Amino acid sequence: MVACATLSMNISNRIAQISASPTLAMAAKARELKQAGLDVISMSLGEPDFPTPAHVKQAVKEAVDADLSHYGPVPGTPGLRAAAAKYMSSFLEESGAEETFVAEDIIVSVGAKQAICNAIETIVGKGDEVILPTPCWVSYTEMVKLAEGVPVIVRTTMDDDFLLTAEALEDAITPRTKLLLLCSPNNPTGAIYSAEQIAALAKVLLRYPNVAVIADEIYNQICYVGKCATWASQTELLDRLVVVNGVSKVFAMTGYRIGWLACKNKEFIKACTRLQGQQITCATMVAQYAAEKALEGDLTCVADMTAAFQRRRDLIVSLAKDIPGLKVRCPKGAFYLFPDVTALFGKQAPADSNYAKAHGSTMISSADELCEYLLMDGLVACVSGSAFGEPTCLRISYACSEQQITEAMLRIRKAIEQLS
Question: Which residues in the chain come in under a pLDDT of 50?
C-alpha cells in the first residue's frame, strides 16, 4: 500500500495579512452560547430586526414565478440601475444640486460591502495610501490591505463628535495619497457630517486632484436630525467621487445582498465593471428585482423603521447615561451606541465570575476584555471599539426591540456594578 503524502498549501501574503471580522466573530460566539442554552442578547451585528416589507416579499414571489433565474448584465439589471439612480438623485435634489445620476452611473453589487471593495480595488494600487478617519467600519482597513494599499489612520475624538476635520485631512495627505474613505452616518459612532463639514473637506480635496473619495452612505435614510447631507452635492468632485448605498439597512434586506455604487466617471465605471465581470458575473437576479421594487415602492416603511430606531436610540441613550463608567454621546444616525469605557479599565471582575475562571485573571484592562466579561457574565454581546480603531469604546447595536434593549442594558449595568 502506498502511503498518501501530506499536502501543504501556501496562503498568499495578501490574504494572510487580513483579519477576520470582529463583529462576525462576536456574533458567532453569541450563537455558540445560545446553542448551549444560554439566554444571550446579541447587540453585535448591524442588522435591523424588522421583517422585510411586504411589497418586497411579493416581488420575490413574482421574480421566482417569472423564472428570473438566469445570468443578467454585469453592472445590474436596467430596471434596478434606473431605480437606484433615481433614488440617489433624490438626495441630490434635496441638497439643491442640479446634477443627477443616471442608470449608466450605477454598478449593482452583492451588497454595499462588495461595492466598496470593488471601488477600492479599482482605484488603489500597491503602496497607494488611503486615508481612513477612525472610528470606522471594521472592513475598510482590511479591504485596503487586500488591494495592497496602505491604510493611513486619522484618529478622531469624541470631543469632535468623531468627525474628520479639514485640518486633519490636509495634514494626512501625501504624494502617495489616492483615496479618502469615510461613512456618514457613521458606523460605529452614529455621527453625521453636515453639509458645511463636507464642503470644508471638499475644499481641501480640490487642491489635490489625484485624491478620489468613496462616500459610504448606506445609513443615510436612518437620520435623526432631518436630512443627511450627501457628498454627491460637491459637484466639483464628481469626476473622482464614488457614492455607495444599498437596500440592506433601510429596507431590512441584509440577506438579499444588494448594494451599488454611483459614479459619474465613465472610465471608472468601465474599469469597475470589468473587475466585477471576473468576480461574480452579476448579483442574484431575484434579489435585484426585489430591490428594484423596494426603491420604486412606497417608502413609508423606511420612515416607520427610522422612527422606531429613533425611539430605540432615545431609550438606550437614557439607560446608558445611568450606568457608571460609561461616557455617552447621542448618535445622530445609524443604529449604534459608542460609549467611552476607559473609566472601567483597571477594574476587577468577581473572582467567581465566568470571565475570571476562563482567563485566570480578574483584571479588566481593555475594551476587548470588557466585551468578554459582558458576554460571559452579563450574557450581552457587543463589540470592542478596538475593532473600529478606537480602543477606548464599545459598539452596542440597538437594531433590536425596546424590550431587548431594556433587558440588555439592565444586564450590562448589573455586570458593571459587580466590578471593583
Answer: none
